[in-house]
Design a protein that fits this description.
mainly alpha; elongated
Length: 126
């Protein structure tokens, strides 16, 4: 069964590298975000999807070879869906945070500088 898992890991890794090469013209392209930087949140999504999908394929293949009537009828623990959900939530919140920072930066650049017609007086007032 470990052999199936390793084969599934390698096949999905090759698929991810090909998709990354097509999208971003380099192997780790699935990890690159819109700013052309490696994104931790995208890495988490890719990692958990890679592990869970490899596990599902392994279990399904083992059930096919064992002659189980419904080999794809695999039930998942709620905690596994929670891990993937946390990663997706992290990616969404990271995107919202970046958008908020961009908007603040844009507003700050549009803010006019205060200009006065007289020089500032420094010293004691009479």
């Amino acid at each position: 069964m470990l052999g199936y898992f390793i084969v599934a890991l390698v096949v999905i890794l090759i698929f991810l590298v090909v998709v990354g090469a097509v999208i971003a013209r380099r192997a780790p392209g699935v990890l690159i975000d819109s700013r052309n930087k490696v994104s931790l949140s995208q890495f988490q999504i890719v990692l958990w999807t890679w592990i869970l999908l490899s596990g599902f394929i392994t279990i399904a293949l083992a059930r096919v070879f064992a002659g189980v009537e419904d080999p794809l009828g695999v039930t998942w623990d709620q905690h596994l869906w929670g891990l993937l959900g946390i990663s997706l939530g992290s990616a969404v919140s990271a995107g919202l945070s970046r958008a908020s920072r961009r908007e603040r930066s844009r507003r700050h650049r549009r803010m006019p500088l205060l200009q006065t017609s007289s020089p500032l007086l420094i010293g004691k007032a009479s």
